[in-house]
Amino acid sequence: MEEFAAKDSVDYDVDVAIKVCRQAGYNDLALNMAKRHRKHEWYLRLQIEDGHNYSDAIAYIGTLDFEDAEMNMKKYGHALMQKIPDETTELLKILCTDYKPSNAPLVSERMLAGGGNRAGYADDNDDDVDSANPDDFLHLFSGCPAKMIDFIEYMIKTRPSENEGVYNTLLEHYMRSLNEMRDEEDGAAAASKRKSLEERVMQILRSEDAKYDVDLALVHCQLHEFRKGFLFLLEDMGLYSQMLQLHLETGDVAAVIQTCRAFGPQNPRLWVEALTAVTKEGDATKSQVKGLLRISSTMCRWNTYLFSDRGNTSHGGEEQPSLVRGGDRHLRPRSLRHPRSDP
Question: The pTM is what?
């Protein structure tokens, strides 16, 4: 059997021979035949399903050509992630950035011929780089959130993605982790960890290069009670009335007044809404109510002026656009990356 399997000349069906050897219990012979004849699927099935040699399997995948490595990681990646998450994550990082078989020569024949200068491998042209889409592998990290975050952070750092999936997934896991941290014990170390993670979330939300879905991010902020991020997105989208309502719901009168001062010039309705709400609930102090009443009255007079004949015909008889018509509807959000308006 060993002599038969070791024959260089192939006058038999290799797949059938491997299958017969496997069924007869000659797994080593089947494995040698699969490796000799580059039957990658058989080799990996034997290593993973029969021999449970996961490290050997991941090392073997790393020697394959890009197309074969990508295909087999999609097929066996989940099983490998459950058993050897560190090694699997490292191979995925390579596969999704600048993949080259681990057994390839450091200096290619093309380089020796003067056809490339990029680290001795290929040209500087990005078309020569083999890299898989990281979104295709995110599902493999099910049950391994720490490894998923490690993988996505690496991808964003080394290869800024145009695809929303990477950023959406990272934001979701960040905010889920923040939510889970609320149940942990208090202490300086825990507080520092939460603060660091909050800063990482805000860094993504503020980044003009982060291609996340703003509506989905808004949902995650609300679902996981990440108030800071929720308020930032509302402001970024020009939804100032919703910001005001959020402060009113929590009874934060100081934040209500601050919101009105910041965005009242664009939308004077905010002052009227704030005054109506805080006087109804009775949460404001007398000085706060007086301040709201004074400024809202001023804004109302300005609003009347804008809609008066004088306000609308002060420039050659042409009607002037009102800042308050439709509330936030005509406001231009600070960031054009996420255009949005109040309904």
Answer: 0.68
